[in-house]
Automatic annotation (TrEMBL), chain A:
Keywords: Signal. SUPFAM superfamilies: Periplasmic binding protein-like II. The keyword Membrane does not apply. This is ABC transporter, extracellular substrate binding protein. Residues 1-22 form the signal peptide. PANTHER family: ABC TRANSPORTER SUBSTRATE-BINDING PROTEIN YESO-RELATED (PTHR43649:SF11), ARABINOSE-BINDING PROTEIN-RELATED (PTHR43649). It holds the Pfam family SBP_bac_8.
UniProtKB/TrEMBL annotation, chain B:
InterPro entries: ABC_transporter_permease (IPR051393), MetI-like (IPR000515), MetI-like_sf (IPR035906). One of its GO terms (cellular component) is plasma membrane. It comes from the Bacteria. It comes from Bifidobacterium saguini DSM 23967. This is ABC transporter, permease protein, probably Saturated and unsaturated oligogalacturonide transporter. The lineage of its organism: Bacteria, Bacillati, Actinomycetota, Actinomycetes, Bifidobacteriales.
Length: 437, 310
């Protein structure tokens, strides 16, 4: 019996032990702990995923919180993205979820609809969510409950490495009005002029990119538990990497495939070998650091119809409280501190994204410099194109990002035709959603 | 199978009625650590996973009985079929290659060259490291577009920037290469087996004028066949359960395009990423059946080529 087996079996054993102790499902119902601060000393647990910069910043912010609340001690745990969700699932199964957890839009509907998360309205006395836009706040709701508080927003844009453009003698076209056609033409020039030493860009390959693509085509990705994007629009998105491999924008198919799997420092854009990257505006700072340049800017996404209101305030990350928390009031105070406190805001900066609180964002924009400043100002730049918030990713579609990449690979390597891939992907996702609900 | 019956008679001989009953208790006492582990970490969870395989279970809501649904779902699941194909290709190609490499080196090392201990350790080293995360990460770099492998090809005059890991047609081959590279443990077992072959057989054969190749075919291979069989069975079972390498090299996705989606990796994805614990448990049980069937086939075929010296 090898390790995998043991893992699978350990999970099985955990459930047997749990169930036999008549605790099976005990984590489902919310605990009846009243949301009031305890009298004595309290320890709460805080979990997040992320790298070194996040660990440093969060630890420092938490220190500030503990100084303000001497009776509250915060235990911190962190992991990488994949490990985080494995761990959270097992912890939740064991009724041992952390009091405060970092949450993502892909998993919100799952944990929210399982009753694993506290309705933050119950803790509104300790947690002020009025500092953020209503449309943003609404994206933390599942089945009418405010199960999570958006901590940051993530705006998609195009990050441009101006060093690459300068060395090739290229100037960006008018990016406020550019179409995908303009973008592709320009990106192609980068690869051609540099004879493949630099590549123009790589095609978007995740759920956020797909959502924006759907909105630009007058559709939406989800509505409730239904997938509403048309096979035709999805097919065109799945085909992008194949088209861009063919016309040289992303070098070739393998280079795209390698770039999508690599960690930030090993990507072409991170190594300064790529001119433009379609991603979250705040990623400009880590990319600039990796590529060793300050000469980066962020410009709006190309659109199908320039100026259309297709953007939206997407929560980058959320904070949520476990419904089984023994100290929901203290947990709410911690989230309030992380979201609304000025000192915490200064420490956390834009590492998790653009702060959800408008006050904190304005405060940071006033003092920021360099790449951070362009990311913070970007929200104002795209304000005219921000439309209504879309439905959040339904329970059962948490694997959306990986599924997109898999089908794009099928198309790029000629294993499926785009439309066939699109139909198959919709069927697979819908099955998964129906199964979960 | 004579070694088995010998073992049986040995046990019988020792178990005399005179033995005090307390011996059993003492034996059980010494066995306890293993027994407790086997019971609580293997047996109970196994039974448990069998039960879960008939349920719909996402780890948070209580399991819900669904009969054979999970097993039926497999028939309509193209990714399940694909993971089976990928794994079988991997097993069928990498196991024989690895055993041939192991045997060839064992025969070479058996000639009693100088510094044998050093070479033995050096060749065994990959087996110690091969399953580790560090080597899988290294592998990813070696076969990347600007990796060592392409640099090597460049020296040979083949200029390519192909990424062997990122292309679905070659990705599985890099993992096969990684498996073959870990020929150390079968090699050590072969070495031990070679030492058991009586030298007189070779002397007699050479007196009769048999060449090296003839000696290898007519003496070494038949005499070594029980060891080859043992290595084959273990290798098939182990390689069917390959997980870490594929997980690390593909970043947990089994990509590109599901070309390295090994059975265990798919099982893990279904269980811990999609939270379909019922389906994952059913997959686990089908894997047990497949591995048992492969082992059964191996045993059935063994009587045609495995010789026990009696």
């Amino acid at each position: 019996m090898n390790r995998v087996w043991k893992k699978v079996m350990a999970a099985g054993l955990a459930t047997v032990t749990l169930c036999s102790a008549a605790a099976c499902g005990s984590s489902v119902g919310a605990s009846d702990v009243p949301v009031v601060p305890a009298d004595g000393d309290v320890t709460i647990r805080l979990n997040w995923w992320g790298g070194d910069a996040r660990i440093k910043a969060t630890e420092q912010a938490v220190k500030g919180f503990e100084a303000e609340h001497p009776n509250i001690h915060v235990d911190m745990e962190y992991s990488d993205w994949t490990g985080y969700w494995d761990k959270l699932a097992v912890q939740s199964a064991g009724g041992n979820a952390p009091d405060v957890m970092q949450m993502d839009e892909l998993y919100l509907a799952f944990y929210g609809s399982m009753g694993s998360l506290l309705d933050l309205n119950k803790a509104s006395q300790y947690l002020d969510l009025s500092t953020m836009d209503a449309s943003l706040k609404s994206m933390g709701q599942v089945e009418g409950e405010q199960v999570a508080a958006p901590a940051t927003t993530a705006q998609y844009g195009v990050i441009v490495n101006n060093d690459v453009l300068d060395s090739l003698g290229l100037t960006l076209p008018d990016t406020d009005q550019w179409t995908w056609n303009d973008f592709e033409k320009f990106a192609q020039q980068v690869t051609e002029r540099s004879a493949g030493q630099y590549i123009g860009s790589i095609a978007p390959n995740n759920g956020y990119g797909l959502q924006l693509w759907a909105r630009q085509h007058g559709e939406s990705l989800f509505k409730g538990n239904a997938i509403t994007i048309s096979p035709k629009t999805l097919a065109s998105f799945l085909q992008l990497p194949a088209d861009w491999a063919k016309n040289g924008i992303e070098g070739n198919a393998e280079r795209w495939s390698e770039n999508t799997a690599a960690s930030l420092n090993d990507t072409d854009f991170g190594k300064g070998k790529q001119a433009m990257m379609i991603t979250q505006a705040t990623m400009i700072t880590p990319y600039a650091e990796a590529a060793g340049t300050q000469n980066m800017t962020v410009v709006p996404m190309p659109q199908v119809t320039p100026g259309a209101k297709t953007m939206y305030l997407k929560p980058g990350m959320y904070w949520a409280i476990s419904s089984g928390s023994q100290h929901p009031a203290e947990a709410a105070m911690l989230i309030d501190y992380l979201i609304n406190n000025k000192q915490a805001g200064a420490v956390l900066g834009t590492e998790r994204g653009i702060p959800a609180s408008n006050d904190i964002r304005k405060m940071l924009a006033g003092s920021a410099s360099g790449t951070d400043k362009s990311a913070l100002n970007f929200v104002d730049d795209i304000q005219p194109t921000i439309g209504k918030a879309p439905a959040i990713t339904p329970n059962g579609a948490s694997e959306l990002d990986k599924t997109i990449v898999r089908y794009q690979q099928d198309v790029v390597f000629g294993k499926r035709k785009p439309l066939e891939a699109a139909k198959s992907m919709i069927a697979e996702l819908q099955e998964s959603i129906d199964f979960a609900s | 199978m004579s070694s088995f019956s010998e073992f049986g008679s040995l046990v019988k001989k020792r178990h005399k009625p005179k033995d005090k009953p307390t011996d059993t208790k003492v034996a059980l006492g010494f066995l306890a650590p293993w027994l407790i582990g086997a019971l609580f970490l293997s047996l109970i969870p196994m039974v448990d996973s069998l039960v879960i395989s008939f349920t719909k279970y996402n780890m948070i809501k209580p399991p819900q009985f669904v009969g054979l649904m999970n097993y039926r779902h497999m028939l309509a699941d193209p990714r399940f079929i694909n993971s089976l194909t990928v794994t079988l290709i991997y097993v069928v190609i990498s196991v024989p290659l690895q055993l041939v490499a192991a045997l060839a080196l064992a025969v070479l090392l058996d000639r009693g060259m100088r510094g044998l201990a050093f070479y033995r350790s050096a060749f065994y080293l990959p087996s110690m490291l091969g399953g580790s995360v560090a080597v899988a990460v290294l592998w990813k770099m070696v076969f990347g577009s600007d990796g060592l492998f392409n640099a090597l090809l460049g020296l040979l005059g083949i200029d390519t920037s192909m990424s062997w890991i990122a292309n679905p047609d070659t990705a599985n081959w890099t993992l096969i290469a990684l498996h073959v590279w870990q020929f150390g443990s079968p090699m050590v077992i072969f070495l031990a087996g070679l030492r058991q072959i009586p030298r007189e057989l070779y002397e007699a054969a050479s007196v009769d004028g048999a060449g090296k190749w003839r000696q290898f075919r007519s003496i070494t291979l038949p005499m070594l066949s029980p060891i080859i069989f043992f290595n084959l069975v273990m290798s098939v079972i182990n390689s069917f359960q390959t997980f870490t390498q594929a997980y690390v090299v593909s970043g947990g996705t089994g990509g590109p395009s599901d070309s390295t989606l090994f059975y265990t990796l798919y099982l893990y994805q279904q269980g811990f990423a999609s939270l379909r614990m019922g389906y994952a448990s059913a997959l686990a049980w089908i894997m047990v059946l497949i591995v048992a069937a492969l082992t059964g086939i191996n045993f059935a075929l063994s009587k045609f080529w495995v010789h026990y010296d009696d």
